[in-house]
Design goal:
By secondary structure, the protein is an alpha+beta fold. It is built from two helices and six strands; from the N terminus they run αββαββββ. The protein starts with 18 loop residues before the first helix and ends in a 14-residue tail after the last strand.
C-alpha cells in the first residue's frame, strides 16, 4: 500500500457497492454501520476502497467531544474492519467475520465532522478461517490512520452467511 504519505488511488476493480448491498453483506446496523459505500474492489489483488461520510449527526459526537467533536480512533479501526469484511465476503469467505487483532496502529490526525474518510484495505492473507490485512484511512488524500488488522470466522457460523443465522 505504499508509504504512510501515499494517496489513495483507484485500481482496476470489479464494481462499486452501494449502501443497500453493504447492509445485506454486513451484520452491523445503525449506528454501528460505518461504511457508506465501496468505491472499488480488486478481487485479483485482494484490495478494496470504501468511504465513510463523517457528519455532525453521528451519535458518538455527542460525547466525543461536545465542544470539539473528534471521531474516536477505535471507530475508524472498526470502519477499516467493516471494509475488510466486505472484501472477505466478496472473496467468497462465508461466515460471521470478527475482528481478532489490531497491530501497529498509528493515529496521525483527528477526523472531524465534514470529513470524507476513504478507507483502503489490502489483504495479505485470506482463508476460510480468517485473514490478515493492512489498512489505511485517508482524509483529503492524507493518511489519518494506518493499522494492521486480522479477522477470524466465528466457529459456529463458518459455513453460513451472518444473515442466515439471524444475528
Amino acid at each position: 500500500m505504499g508509504t504512510s504519505n501515499s494517496t489513495i488511488s483507484s485500481g482496476v476493480g470489479t464494481h462499486a457497492i452501494d449502501i443497500d448491498e453493504i447492509i445485506r453483506i454486513l451484520p452491523h446496523s445503525y449506528p454501528f454501520l460505518l461504511v457508506d459505500r465501496i468505491l472499488d474492489i480488486d478481487l485479483e489483488n485482494n484490495r478494496i476502497i470504501g468511504q465513510k461520510n463523517v457528519t455532525i449527526n453521528e451519535q458518538f459526537f455527542t460525547g466525543h467531544f461536545p465542544s470539539k467533536p473528534i471521531m474516536p480512533g477505535v471507530l475508524i479501526i472498526e470502519a477499516m474492519a467493516q471494509v475488510g469484511g466486505i472484501l472477505m465476503h466478496k472473496k467468497g469467505i462465508k461466515g460471521l467475520k470478527v475482528l481478532m487483532s489490531v497491530y501497529d496502529a498509528r493515529f496521525r490526525r483527528p477526523v472531524t465532522p465534514g470529513d470524507v474518510l476513504m478507507i483502503e484495505v489490502q489483504a495479505t492473507f485470506l482463508s476460510q478461517r480468517g485473514g490478515k490485512c493492512e489498512a489505511k484511512a485517508f482524509v483529503n488524500n492524507e493518511v489519518v490512520v494506518d493499522a494492521g488488522i486480522s479477522f477470524g470466522i466465528h466457529p459456529e457460523f463458518r459455513t453460513q452467511s451472518h444473515k442466515d443465522n439471524h444475528i
